[in-house]
Predict the structure.
Amino acid sequence: MTRIDSIKIAPEHGFRGEGDLFLPENPLGAPVAIVIHGGGWTAMDKTTITPFSLLLTECGYAAFSVNYRLLNDAPWPACGDDCLRSTEFLLSAGHPAMKELDRSRILILGASAGGHLALWTGLNLPPEKVRAIISIAGPSNLIMQKDKWDKKPEFWGKFLGGAVTDEKLMAASPVTYVKSGVPRLLCIHSTNDKLVLPEQSRFMIDAYAKVNAEAELFIFPGKRTNHGIWTDGSGEVSKDKRIIVPEVRSVISSFLKRI
């Protein structure tokens, strides 16, 4: 595996406009993926989701783990626009190391807020450019998230950069963009997740079913009440020691083989 850190996607955004490229052992013709970190749109960075980038390289993918502007930098849709820009950067081989990769279609993977952004990005790209979307504990309906999430009301004003309305929240909700011909989808969720309830993934799967699109749901009993994707259950362990729980590793590896 070869790793190229701090590639400049949007230099005007500094660190928030950078990405890390992970190349598999045999990069020639390797499929590509964008990897999007979580953090409630307010925290974390591309390094906090590195274990998933490494898993993708083990499966033969090149993984481009990207930063985006947080809410302290700019309100929605800045983070979504940044993710779209990152996919365009990868698809157009914005870095020389990307030129030998198979950039005809892109896999998009994200967790938590990154799951929301993976869904939103994948559904707002031309469907023929997207191989599949993998959402891990991603909010699909922000009205539902607002009603169930223990966040102060002013958070959503900060998210939207102004008045909070159901119309604006739905415009930022991935489920709004589900229509016939959408990319293949895998949703992963812990039954014990209290940060983003598993109903968020089920809601997305139901929306896919209504348009006869291909989607899979993997539900597992993660430790504690966070997303449960790390072996310690908390997600608070030092980022360089995070280990993906075996059942999540297995379902992603199996999905990638099928697509």
Notes: The chain has a mean pLDDT of 96.
